[in-house]
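Incident review: delayed structure delivery

Summary: a single-chain prediction request sat in the queue longer than the usual turnaround. Root cause was a stuck worker, restarted by the on-call engineer. No data loss occurred. The affected request and its eventual output are reproduced below so the record is complete for anyone auditing the incident later.

Affected input:
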Amino acid sequence: EDYDMALAYYTDLLRVQRCLFPTKLVDNAVTMNFIGLILHRAGKCNKAGEIFQSALQIRLALISRKEETSSQQEAKRRRRDGSTFESKSAEDDSESSCAEHPIFPTLL
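Output delivered after worker restart:
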């Protein structure tokens, strides 16, 4: 009974944390999986399934957010480099030097 109360408390706390701190989604997904494993081991398979489902939804949201951010960055880069992209691609690659790369001088 104490186990059930403690687990319910931490599960509710995690749900509140998920609402308040959406940037901590990775930590929340890992924690929810851990709680799900504990529940499953304790024989509470239905509750474990709910927790695993929530963790999966968090992961899907993270993937979606990452893809959206990547596509937005790609679109910005294309807009910024749009006029120079074609002229750069037509140049011979042998003309460009590694030393011109912004990180290269810091490695020397």
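Verification: DSSP finds four helices and no strands in the chain.
Action items: add queue-age alerting; document worker restart procedure.
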